[in-house]
Amino acid sequence: MAKRSILHMFDPMQNNSPFDINMALDCDFDVLMPYSNVRLESIGRLTQDVIFSRGPSGVKQTAIFIGGRDLGVAVDMLNGAKKAMVPPFEVSVFADPSGAFTTAAALVACVEKELKEKHNKALKDCKALVFGGTGPVGIATGVTTSLAGAQTTLVDHFSKESAQSLAEEYNRRFNSTLSGTVATYDEDKIALIEDADIIFCTAKAGIQILNAEVLSHAKKLKVVGDVNAVPPSGIAGIQLNDFGAPLTHATASKNAVGIGPLAVGNIKYKVQHALLESMLSGDNPVYLDFIAAFDKARDLLK
């Protein structure tokens, strides 16, 4: 009898994500096993319970998904699971806390594509700001953009100290070169965006972070990307399905283009679907994090 495919879903939070469960079912896993309140110190034991119960053929039909909200904990769990493998008893592991890795991968890859096509620029040539940069998607966006070579700043609404502390923490983890700052009022935002090439908005849904008046001071702006699908848009003038559309409001930079949340979400969905499928399609285990997600997003956009 053929082995059924099983996805074990480890989550440090109280609840597993319904989004991730739906995605996994759509990728044809036969059985989903969600686990909540999983602690980092339990990962080794849980992983070995997974791998030793199915035999060398069964592990090819078995995988682990790691959720939660803390990017550092998710990466630590992925690394802990990888260390617990005992060849040939190995399974694939995919970390995507709060969907942050796949969302950030899609956002940055879409911006990178428009930079190249509309401005003949690479990320390494640019200065990037991440508004809402202290949340999971913002941090993942910042790290991904920084590692691609951009001068990247995480922008918090309330505290420079919080933004800088997180920047330093993730610089230590991933060898990125993030900085952190604060922008509470319009005058703060204007001072920041005057020489920015790229603006990412990953802030709380339903709040407009940058209005048209603020954006009118963006002298070098090339591409903006917004993941907020709940009205109003996080960035004035961005429409839900925009993908390289000229901004509809006046900016100091007349050639700026925007990427809307549904355009980003479409790529995010495809990235997550492809990575989930890859855990069952190969003979060798794969270990998937924000780097793998960004590579896949780039491939999808070629």
The total strand number stands at 12
Helices and strands: which structural class?
Answer: alpha/beta
What number of structural domains do the residues give?
2
Q: Can you count the helices? A: 11
User: What is the percentage of strand-forming residues?
Assistant: 15-25%
Could you walk me through the main structural features you see in this protein, from its secondary elements to its overall organization?
This protein is of the alpha/beta class and 302 residues long. The protein folds into two domains: 6-99 and 267-300, Rossmann fold, CATH 3.40.50; 105-264, NAD(P)-binding Rossmann-like Domain (Rossmann fold, 3-Layer(aba) Sandwich). Helices cover 42% and strands 17% of the residues. It is built from eleven helices and twelve strands. The strands form two sheets. The chain has a seven-stranded mixed sheet, sandwiched between helices. It has a five-stranded parallel sheet with strand order 2-1-3-4-12, sandwiched between helices. Helix 9 links the parallel strand 8 and strand 9. Helix 5 (100-119) packs across helix 6. It is elongated. The model has no long low-confidence stretch (mean pLDDT 94).
